[in-house]
């Protein structure tokens, strides 16, 4: 093994970066491999174009005739670009993307062949996708899954394949993917928010949810990763002593981007341009070899698709630069891990960002309405929002003072805090003309266009208002954004629906003026949801205590966090909002909890193997060298040798102790795994893995890492942190 490490080191040190040559102006490349509106206009008949447009904008069904036309044009377009295959591209509950390619090519009876692609192949496919997690849905109903075209996310060409974004559902209609519930949630927030907008502007017909993600990642030399079975199999290092220099000097963040990484980024961004992913910013992150990419925000469904696509493309592009991209939330101990901020806002079809303070008192009242309702929604559903980002890998990051804690709170900044305080003082019931004028002029009218906290915002908050959007900062880097985006949009939709009901009662039954009613309801909301607001240091222990007093949840691990997903209130919420049925919600819980179990199980097996098969034999080898040395000293020096060999003797003992530490802990860990595996209840099994198996990962690692410091570097089989993090 050590041979492999030194071979890898030599390869990576002598590697010559692959210079990426830009293919042209980005604006000209943008979307060239996307069957977007422009392309459709060129390729589709007027009728077909209208059909697709109304499907995208109003969710109307596409008839067979139009589907046939679209398919035929898509095929012509794709063939003109050298494409050979097509695939329905979807996002099963594994979190990754899935595709099964079919060739356009078909044989004819006369022995000839043609390229074929019809409406039926575009609209629906039945991949034999029986191996994707379904949480029991397909077993129960013995139904297969099928994929169905989502016209709101345009088809695109990746390399030589035409990819058609689709949903993935069971024949009985239950969703088996991330996209289906997301589309339902986006629809429900459109309806709820449009209704509320009508208080302010009767012309609003549609509200769209927008999302802009920021994706953090690590780049590590591919050869160096190849001698790390832990990274290869689990995406993170399960052992490895910290490098003497890590991120202490803060010299990586926003530093000049290393040449090879820059070439990777340029290559990646070019791919993004072709695929219509509006990549905009790139920079070094806090940890060595850690970077970030962020696009311009887009309609949420498209943004989620683009993030999923990006994660896939990143891996392939990295390969060309001899890198492996690590998307795991905590690839290395003791330095920062990676997250994925989800910036979220709502906009009307009249062009108004509902989370941006406006220029007039009325537009600001509209802003405050959406602002306060979002805060209330987060307050009422903080535990569910936490659950939406729960995973074995994100558990490493949340609450370890590099990312938000597992407690959900909302940061709004000093100026808006003051505005809410003033609104809290609004008189109950009808307002005097003086009070109304005062509110309009001095409170609502005075929300500044540019909020000061905008720039100086609290980096420790999981959910921060950042001037014209909320930034959900606790999302894991590896996660499919569909999950948190479904929850966020659903809870805000539900809240807006309640709000509308309450305001209408005041207006219709109590003769309140519209603005009076809104002020009255908002006042109560501000009072009721105050406990979710927090401006202080989210990393501090004091906040943990304070949050507990306020009754906020602090679910530190996934099994704890996921429970709320099957609470009656959650199921009612999803059912009421038409986002998920009880069966779907329960199935998802099952899939996620099983995934947790499997992740810990795999990590535990991998570490057990490495510790016993790589670390212990290496330690024994070195110990034998020491023993030979001691024996030799004894031969030469006779009595004097005990003094001369003192250090060696201590080392021999220390090595034995660590070997014992490894072996006894691996044995105990295997015992615990066996016990956990016997449990049939998935929740109990997950808890057993969390409480009884997982702690051994740390114990075993401790001994391995100590040995790394003791054993001769030349014998050490695994690439070390300093190599993984500083060779670029
Ligand atoms: P920072 O790292 O300081 O948060 P970035 O510029 O890296 O800032 O990220 C800003 C993110 O916010 C981008 O992903 C961008 O797409 C997104 N964004 C900007 N405006 C909006 C908006 N109105 N709605 C949703 N997302 C937005
Ligand atoms: Mg950000």
UniProtKB/TrEMBL annotation:
A molecular-function term among this protein's GO annotations: glutamine synthetase activity
GS beta-grasp domain residues: 84-173
Keyword line: Ligase
E.C. number(s) listed in UniProt: 6.3.1.2
Matches recorded under Gene3D superfamilies: 1.20.120.1560, Glutamine synthetase/guanido kinase, catalytic domain
Any matching Pfam family: Gln-synt_C-ter
Annotated ranges, domain GS catalytic: 178-615
Signal peptide feature range: none
Biological processes per GO annotation: glutamine biosynthetic process
Highest taxon in the source lineage: Bacteria
Broadest EC class assigned to this enzyme: ligase
Cross-referenced PROSITE patterns: GLNA_ATP, GS_BETA_GRASP, GS_CATALYTIC
InterPro entries per UniProt: Gln-synt_C (IPR040577), Gln_synt_N (IPR008147), Gln_synth/guanido_kin_cat_dom (IPR014746), Gln_synth_cat_dom (IPR008146), Gln_synth_gly_rich_site (IPR027303), GS_Type-3 (IPR052725), GSIII_N (IPR022147)
The family this protein is said to belong to: Belongs to the glutamine synthetase family.
PANTHER family in the record: GLUTAMINE SYNTHETASE (PTHR42974), TYPE-3 GLUTAMINE SYNTHETASE (PTHR42974:SF1)
Protein name: Glutamine synthetase type III GlnN
Species in which this protein is naturally found: Jejuia pallidilutea
């Amino acid at each position: 093994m050590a041979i492999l490490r030194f071979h890898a080191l030599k390869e990576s040190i002598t590697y010559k970066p692959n210079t990426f040559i830009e293919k042209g102006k980005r604006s000209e490349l943008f979307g060239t491999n996307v069957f977007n509106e422009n392309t459709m206009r060129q390729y589709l008949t007027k009728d077909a174009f209208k059909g697709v447009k109304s499907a995208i904008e109003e969710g109307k069904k596409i008839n067979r005739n139009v589907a046939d036309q679209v398919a035929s044009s898509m095929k012509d377009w794709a063939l003109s670009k050298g494409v050979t295959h097509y695939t329905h591209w979807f996002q099963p509950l594994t979190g990754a993307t899935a595709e099964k390619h079919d060739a356009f090519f078909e044989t004819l009876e006369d022995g000839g062949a043609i390229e074929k692609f019809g409406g039926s192949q575009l609209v629906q496919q039945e991949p034999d996708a029986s191996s994707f997690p379904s949480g029991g849905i397909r077993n129960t109903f013995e139904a297969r899954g099928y994929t169905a075209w989502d016209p709101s996310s345009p088809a695109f060409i990746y390399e030589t394949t035409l990819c058609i974004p689709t949903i993935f559902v069971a024949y009985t209609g239950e969703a088996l993917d991330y996209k289906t519930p997301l589309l339902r949630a986006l629809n429900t927030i459109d309806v709820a928010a449009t209704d509320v907008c009508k208080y302010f502007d009767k012309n609003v017909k549609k509200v769209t949810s927008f999302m802009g993600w920021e994706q953090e990642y690590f780049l590590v030399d591919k050869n160096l990763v190849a001698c790390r079975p832990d990274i290869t199999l689990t995406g993170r290092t399960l052992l490895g002593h910290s490098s003497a220099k890590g991120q202490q000097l803060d010299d990586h963040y926003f530093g000049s981007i290393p040449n090879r990484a820059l070439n990777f980024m340029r290559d990646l961004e070019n791919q993004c341009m072709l695929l219509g992913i509006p990549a905009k910013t790139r920079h070094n992150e806090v940890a060595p070899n850690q970077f970030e990419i962020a696009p311009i925000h887009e309609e949420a469904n498209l943004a989620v698709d683009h993030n999923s696509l990006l994660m896939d493309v990143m891996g392939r592009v990295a390969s060309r630069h001899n890198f492996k991209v690590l998307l795991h939330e905590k690839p290395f101990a003791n330095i920062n891990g990676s997250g994925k901020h989800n910036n979220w806002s709502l906009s009307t079809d009249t062009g108004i960002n509902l989370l941006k303070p406006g220029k007039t008192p009325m537009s600001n009242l509209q802003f405050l309405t959406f602002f306060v309702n979002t805060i209330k929604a987060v307050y009422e559903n903080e535990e569910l929002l936490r659950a939406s980002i729960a995973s074995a890998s994100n558990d490493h990051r949340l609450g370890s003072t590099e990312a938000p804690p597992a407690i959900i709170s909302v940061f709004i900044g000093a100026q808006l805090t003051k505005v809410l305080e003033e609104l809290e003082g609004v008189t109950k019931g009808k307002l005097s003309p003086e009070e109304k004028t005062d509110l309009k002029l001095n409170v609502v009218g005075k929300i500044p266009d540019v909020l000061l906290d905008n720039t100086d915002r609290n980096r420790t908050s999981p959910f921060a208002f950042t001037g014209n959007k909320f930034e959900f900062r606790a999302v894991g880097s590896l996660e499919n954004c569909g999950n948190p985006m479904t929850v966020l949009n659903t809870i805000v939709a539900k809240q807006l629906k309640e709000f509308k009901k309450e305001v209408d009662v005041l207006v219709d039954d109590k003769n309140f003026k519209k603005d009076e009613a809104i002020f009255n309801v908002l006042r109560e909301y501000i009072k009721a949801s105050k406990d979710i607001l927090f401006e202080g240091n989210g990393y501090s222990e004091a906040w943990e205590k304070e949050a507990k007093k306020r009754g906020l949840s602090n679910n530190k691990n996934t099994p704890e966090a996921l429970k709320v997903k099957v609470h009656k209130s959650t199921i009612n919420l999803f059912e009421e909002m038409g986002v998920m049925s009880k069966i779907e919600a329960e199935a998802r819980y099952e899939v996620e909890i099983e995934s947790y179990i499997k992740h810990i199980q795999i990590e535990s097996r991998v570490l057990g193997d490495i510790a016993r098969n790589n670390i212990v034999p290496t330690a024994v080898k070195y110990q034998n060298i020491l023993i030979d040395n001691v024996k030799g000293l004894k031969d030469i020096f006779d009595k004097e040798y005990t003094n001369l060999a003192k250090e060696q003797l201590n080392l021999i003992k220390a090595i034995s102790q660590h070997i014992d530490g490894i072996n006894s802990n691996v044995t105990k860990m295997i015992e615990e795994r066996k016990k956990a595996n016997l449990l049939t209840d998935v929740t109990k099994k997950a808890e057993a893995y969390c409480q009884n198996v997982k702690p051994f990962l740390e114990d075993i690692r401790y001994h391995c890492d100590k040995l790394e410091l003791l054993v001769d570097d030349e014998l050490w089989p695994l690439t070390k942190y300093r190599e993984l993090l500083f060779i670029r």
